[in-house]
Specification:
The protein is built from six helices and three strands, in the order H-H-H-H-H-E-E-H-E. The chain has a three-stranded mixed β-sheet, with helices on one face. Helix 6 links the parallel strand 2 and strand 3.
Length: 219
């Protein structure tokens, strides 16, 4: 912003003899511009260093920070903001994420993060103990285990309200990325994304909200 032509008001804080020096009046304007943000014309908005520093706490508050600072705050918690979120959703996410870090690696933390990112309610369960049954649970290394369920293994199930392929693929990618980031390193999991069955007049449009068979695990 150009420096105004009028003398610096800082001259009022100096002995009167300094006001007789034109150069000093212009020289002090540079410092006044930086510190207080002089406007070139009356009524123009201005922001100086003093004002910025006095309001710096707002930059770290998701509810009050500027919109362009929201991705910067997200970087502090090592998570990104979804591009399809509104500004309000982004602020709400950032205000909730820091307390969640205290529970990182827990089932509750993962469930809430999945809920925030996908807008759905996940169901997370431990590996089930299943009885050996020929033709049902009898494949060695897949669904047969001696001495109970698979250790350090959990199952995540998410139900989509509509089974359109684009939503299925996006939610699958988001869920897997979050689970891989948040789960303890020694654990493994299975993700199932399911949807309601075909209903004529409700979910029956081929290629949009109807899928035959089960949802693909890696769309």
């Amino acid at each position: 912003m150009p420096i105004p032509d009028k003398p610096s008001s800082y001259l009022q804080n100096l002995p009167a003899i300094f006001s007789e020096e034109p150069f000093l009046a212009r020289f002090l304007l540079a410092f006044e511009q930086v510190l207080t943000g002089l406007a070139k014309k009356e009524g123009e908005p201005s922001e100086g260093l003093e004002e910025i520093i006095s309001a710096i706490d707002k930059l770290f508050d998701p509810a009050r920070t500027r919109e362009d600072f929201l991705p910067w705050l997200a970087g502090w918690v090592a998570l990104g903001l979804r591009s399809d979120w509104t500004e309000g959703q982004q602020r709400n996410f950032l205000s909730r994420i820091v307390p969640l870090y205290q529970r990182r690696g827990t089932r509750e933390n993962l469930a809430e993060l999945l809920s925030i990112y996908t807008g759905l309610t996940p169901v997370i369960t431990d590996a089930e103990d299943v009885d050996f049954q020929i033709g049902v649970h009898s494949t060695i290394g897949v669904d047969t285990h001696v001495g109970g369920g698979i250790p350090h293994f959990f199952h995540v199930r998410v139900t989509l309200p509509q089974a359109d392929p684009a939503s299925l693929k996006r939610q699958n990618q988001i869920a897997r990325a979050l689970i891989d980031m948040q789960k303890p390193a020694h654990t493994d999991y299975k993700l199932d994304i399911v949807f309601d069955t075909l209903q004529i007049g409700v979910r029956s449009t081929i290629g949009i909200d109807t899928l035959l068979g089960s949802a693909p695990t890696n769309p």
